[in-house]
Amino acid sequence: MITDKLKELVTTNIRTTINNGKIGQGGNSTSPAATTLDVPLSTATSTFAAVKSDTNVIEIQAIFQGATSSMTGKVIREFGIFDSSSNLLARVNFDGVGPFASNEDLELFLTIEVE
User: Fold this and answer.
1) Residues with Cβ within 8 Å of residue 114, at least 6 apart in sequence
2) Preceding omega of 40 cis (within 30 degrees of 0)
3) pLDDT digits (tens, 9 = 90+) for 17-47
4) Considering all CA atoms of the chain, what is the largest pairwise distance in Å, rounded to the nearest integer?
5) b/e map of 25-57 (b: 16 or more CB within 10 Å)?
6) Whole-structure pTM over 0.70, yes or no?
7) Most buried residue, 10, 75, 84, 110, by most Cβ within 10 Å?
């Protein structure tokens, strides 16, 4: 068992470490040894926010704009969060969404709970 205070400290540390999000086309299971997305796209987020919504919960929002990205015409199947050194911290694969037109945006949400 960890205390509520430790959960809060770990959550704060994670939130301040998360720097950006990336998307890709890979959709297989995630290896804990992975260092990058399976099939990354060179797409930057137009909006990225990691907010501590509770003492042990982080809510992440990332918006990718179709007009300024390489996701046009692509099907997206993975989302990863990274630190400022481009270390992969978490990756989520999901059923594909898309393909996207150049005037469409993709908004993704990820919730991390420290238990």
Assistant:
1) 7, 10, 11, 14, 56, 57
2) no
3) 999 999 999 888 878 888 889 999 977 778 9
4) 48
5) bbeeebeeeeeebbebbebebeebebebeeebe
6) yes
7) 110
